[in-house]
Amino acid sequence: MILRFSDHAANERTYLAWVRTAITVMAFGFLLERFDIFLAYASHAMGSTMPKLHVLASEWLGLALLAFGALLVLLATLSFHRNRAAIDREGNELYRRGGMERLLSGLLIAMAVFLVIYVAQQVVALS
């Protein structure tokens, strides 16, 4: 029998949830990086030209999301191993976490605000 199995299983479920989140962020980054194909098609259908700045913005933000997803996997792996070692140690210790979660949440909120502004500008420009 594995000692503290339920704690280890919860740690693994949390790790897998972070990995799924990272895969989703990377997929969204890839989609956004390819968003210029949609913009080119839409601007061609409207009979206008697409500004190069908007293409570069979607490419850079898409690459940033891809890198952010990779960073999520790295941080989740480090957290998983740190928690695994803490579960195996004898004794009690205080739970002092939250820095990584705050940083990642802040970055996601900043990217979401940028995306809202970016897409709103595109909608206004195409209409």
From TrEMBL:
Subcellular location: Endomembrane system
Keywords (A to Z) from UniProt: Membrane, Transmembrane, Transmembrane helix
Listed transmembrane segments: 21-41, 61-81, 102-120
InterPro entries: DUF202
Membrane topology: Multi-pass membrane protein
Domain DUF202 residue range list: 7-84
Protein name from the UniProt record: DUF202 domain-containing protein
